User: What shape does this take?
Amino acid sequence: MTSSIGERKIQNVTLSENGYGKSREFIVAGPTTPEAAIVAMGSPDTLPEIGDDYGDLSLQCTNLEAKMFDDDNTRWIVTATYTATNREDSEGGSINVGALSNFQFQTGAESVKVFQAKTPTPAGKSFARTGTAPLSKGLIGWDGEKAQGADVPFGAFRFSISKKYARSEIDDDYILLLSSNVFSTNEEAWSSWNAGEILFEGASGRHAPGGKPVVYGDDNGQMGGFSNLTGVDSSNSSGGVLYTTLEKWSGLANYKVYFYQDSDRTDLVGSCTMARVADDNIFSAEGSSGISGTFTIYKYLYDSDTIAVQFPLEWEIKYDFAVSPNVISQEVGDITVTNKEGWERADVQYTPVEQTVDGNKRVIHEAAYVYLHKVFDSMDFGTLLISESEVIPS
Assistant: This one.
């Protein structure tokens, strides 16, 4: 018997909310049993996904049910239940981790008052109103009482790091640590810089609670339910992102699902080696990752290494730093200054020195002593919740 199929219209709305899914009703005429009406519709796998015409994207038919229409055993209402391919926010393509953990830098010029030239001024660079100018050891702007110096532009390097954290990682003590160590230098070597070269200039942060996991690259709508996982933070993820690999057991409807901290998929933080199409697949933590809970597989998986899950980390903190290189050795007049830390202040004391020039005695001032003063406290940068590998991305 030939069957006719038509979509049922109710107030011009063909979809109704049904939890995370939606339903669509059809009138099937011709078959004499509900089973035959369903066969006439086709299997759920063969029905097309619902697109924009129904106000949603990529909803796939997962179930068909038939009931008699108006007590007529040749007409049936067949309800097609559609389920979202991902019950959480879903986006195609690959995730941009750079948007989650951010390194920025700025180079430029900064005006610095300089009182001493880098080298003594040679005779060919000194001039006198009459006769010959006395030799200078590089003092700039002596007015008879003190050095006035000169404003000189020097290269400056600053950088900032923005990082996301779980609520459990940031507390009052950490915020107090940041506020009490503003304008502190690194007491030990950190990342690419030696001790004393980096100045922590402060931090700014914001707390944005809420949100839910977002799945990237899951174009086939394979996995979800990640809101049931807890313990994801900055230490066991890449800015809240976990990367997966999927592998089907040969001949079985079970799967191996692995979760990694890094996009290279080498740092394993959890797995489920007997996953199935269900909403209670248990996440088994690897090592000390501390992640636990369950996740969902919606349908049979394709082997895929393209899926990444971004978990909402509620805190975002931006750290600001400035760099001043250490000085191994530098001449100040006749004095050799060694091992100056970048943010130490050089205090040069001068003394009058008599020179005989063209038979006449002349008095100039030269550096007599140099003191290296520590004007900033130092701190252990290891107490900042930033790993050295995150400072300059490789």
Observations:
- The first strand starts at residue 4 and ends at 7.
- Helices lie at 34-41, 172-180.
